[in-house]
């Protein structure tokens, strides 16, 4: 059983999921470094690779990265612009891929990455084409890269449904059963402290 105290970077720590992840990991006895665009222990923007490089250089060695950041645009297929695609791919997809790429020189042996996708991979909604596309791509990246990460480093992905706390989104998810953010945070803990690799953990 892994009861070791880990040094964990939580990116997106000011958001609903990220805050719960950081709090839960701290309560479990781990050292948590909170990162967001404008608050926390360090600031970084996952759309900016240079920003990520500066973050990991500043933190130094660590055991895990838990990411809860990444945005996509919602609209109809006919209304999406090139800029909408560029933003969504640059944020939630390439942003997360670049977290892994830039963190590799700094993460300790036997470390782990936990990224985020979402239920729209499997259950699309109206206006969610970009979210479904990006989520599917990040899950593919996680599955494939799990075979190639060096030094026994693991990678998993959390796929939550709509959050109970995100009341404004509920009308866009008719018939979906919302999940509380603390349950999503427990899935992150399972990914980080467990032995899973290349898994899509659905919540």
TrEMBL record:
InterPro entries: NAD(P)-bd_dom_sf, SDR_DHRS6-like, SDR_fam. Keywords: Oxidoreductase. SUPFAM superfamilies: NAD(P)-binding Rossmann-fold domains. Signal peptide: none annotated. It comes from the Bacteria. One of its GO terms (molecular function) is oxidoreductase activity. PANTHER family: DIHYDROANTICAPSIN 7-DEHYDROGENASE. Belongs to the short-chain dehydrogenases/reductases (SDR) family. This is NAD(P)-dependent dehydrogenase, short-chain alcohol dehydrogenase family. It comes from Chryseobacterium arachidis.
């Amino acid at each position: 059983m892994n009861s070791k105290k880990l040094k964990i970077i939580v990116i997106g720590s000011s958001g609903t999921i990220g805050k719960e992840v950081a709090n839960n990991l701290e309560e479990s006895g781990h050292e948590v470094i909170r990162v967001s665009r404008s608050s926390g222990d360090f600031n970084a923007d996952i759309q900016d690779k240079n920003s990520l490089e500066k973050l990991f250089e500043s933190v130094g060695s660590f055991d895990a990265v838990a990411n809860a950041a990444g945005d996509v645009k919602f609209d109809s297929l006919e209304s999406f612009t090139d800029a909408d695609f560029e933003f969504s791919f640059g944020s939630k997809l390439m942003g997360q891929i670049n977290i892994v790429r830039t963190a590799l020189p700094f993460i300790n042996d036997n470390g782990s990455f936990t990224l985020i996708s979402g239920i729209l991979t499997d259950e699309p909604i109206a206006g969610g084409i970009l979210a479904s596309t990006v989520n599917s791509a990040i899950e593919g990246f996680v599955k494939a890269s799990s075979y190639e990460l060096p030094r026994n480093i693991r990678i998993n992905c959390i796929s939550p449904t709509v959050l109970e706390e995100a009341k404004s989104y509920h009308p866009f998810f008719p018939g979906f059963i919302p999940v509380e953010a603390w349950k999503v945070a427990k899935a992150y803990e399972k990914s980080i402290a467990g032995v899973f690799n290349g898994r899509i953990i659905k919540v």
